[in-house]
């Protein structure tokens, strides 16, 4: 549960810098994204910059380095990623490094003769794990009609299943631990295939979280609202876009819809 949410948050931060929607434009190629974040005190904009994040990309627009600095310019976080590919361009190996350039995690992907990934090996190196004590685990993938329908993780005995609608859009995602249902997520979409509803339920903790999404006429996400099990707002995030469908501004609001932070995105192209 916690591990899943951490991954989702990480993904949002990284892909949010790229900010591309369904009508994405690949040129000019992105080199860097600089995020300047401002904080609010009791709804009033603080004049002090809360921090700066710089994300650098390779020629395929994979993030290869993320550097975060606080308002004093002190580096607080560094994440480097190295990618290796098979001759046909499919990702073979991904290695994550810490701020001292020591590897902390490695992911190796394997494909069958049809180019479909059937196995991924995950190795943790010099890494203080918060959620489990596994240094190595393997994930096996099962497909039907070119859609991923099942993942099995060994030796942790975790299984995830995926269900799709007639348009091949994911509508349910379930996770089982030692054969028991741990959590389930359901999804709904608009006529354009944009995800507009997401409901996450944790069976063990009797926890439910719902997220609602809105899009503009170009199918770019402009709003995300998170609701707790009672339907009360947890946070609300809004986005504005500029050229190349890339995000230029982001606003974060709290439970009472009070502004909490504002982020401005600047892009550097090759």
State the major sheet.
18 strands, antiparallel, barrel
Instruction: List the helices and strands in order.
Output: HEEEEEEEEEEEEEEEEEE
Percent of residues in helices comes to under 10%
Uncertain runs are 1-16, 19-26, 127-133
**Rough shape?**
globular
Structural class computed from helices and strand pairing: mainly beta
Question: From the alpha-carbon coordinates, what is the Rg to the nearest angstrom?
Answer: 20 Å
Number of strands: 18
First-residue to last-residue Cα separation:
39 Å
Strand content: over 45%
Helical run tally:
1
- Mean pLDDT metric: 85
Question: What features would you describe in this structure?
Answer:
It is a single chain. The chain has 270 residues and is mainly β. The chain has a domain at 86-156. Helix content is 6%, strand content 60%. It has 1 helix and 18 strands. It has one helix at residues 2-18, and strands at 30-41, 44-57, 63-70, 75-85, 91-97, 103-111, 117-124, 136-144, 147-154, 158-164, 170-177, 180-189, 195-202, 207-215, 221-227, 233-241, 247-253, 259-269. It has an 18-stranded antiparallel β-barrel. The longest helix is centred in the N-terminal third of the chain and has 17 residues, at 2-18. The radius of gyration is 20 Å and the shape is globular. The two termini are 39 Å apart.
Which descriptors apply to this entry?
single chain, mainly beta, 18-stranded antiparallel β-barrel, 18 strands
């Amino acid at each position: 549960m916690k591990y899943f949410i951490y991954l989702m948050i990480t993904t949002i931060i990284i892909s949010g810098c790229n900010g591309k929607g369904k009508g994405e434009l690949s040129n000019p190629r992105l080199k860097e994204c600089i995020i300047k974040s401002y904080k609010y005190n009791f709804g009033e904009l603080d004049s002090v910059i809360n921090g700066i994040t710089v994300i650098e990309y390779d020629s395929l627009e994979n993030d290869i380095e993320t550097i975060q600095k606080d308002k004093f310019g002190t580096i607080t976080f560094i994440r480097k990623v190295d990618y290796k590919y098979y001759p046909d361009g499919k990702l073979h190996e991904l290695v994550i490094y810490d701020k001292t350039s020591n590897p902390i995690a490695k992911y190796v992907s394997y494909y069958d003769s049809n180019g479909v990934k059937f196995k991924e090996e995950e190795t943790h190196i010099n890494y203080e794990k918060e959620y489990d004590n596994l240094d190595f685990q393997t994930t096996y993938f099962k497909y039907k009609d070119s859609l991923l329908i099942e993942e099995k993780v060994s030796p942790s005995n975790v299984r995830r299943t995926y269900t799709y609608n007639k348009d091949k859009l994911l509508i349910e995602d379930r996770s089982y631990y030692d054969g028991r249902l741990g959590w389930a997520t359901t999804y709904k979409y608009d006529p354009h295939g944009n995800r507009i509803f997401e409901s996450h339920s944790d069976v063990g903790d009797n926890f439910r979280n719902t997220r609602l999404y809105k899009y503009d006429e170009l199918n770019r996400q402009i709003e995300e609202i998170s609701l707790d099990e009672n339907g009360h707002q947890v946070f609300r995030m809004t986005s504005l876009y500029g050229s190349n469908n890339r995000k230029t501004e982001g606003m974060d609001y709290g439970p009472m819809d009070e502004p909490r932070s504002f982020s401005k995105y600047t892009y550097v192209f090759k």
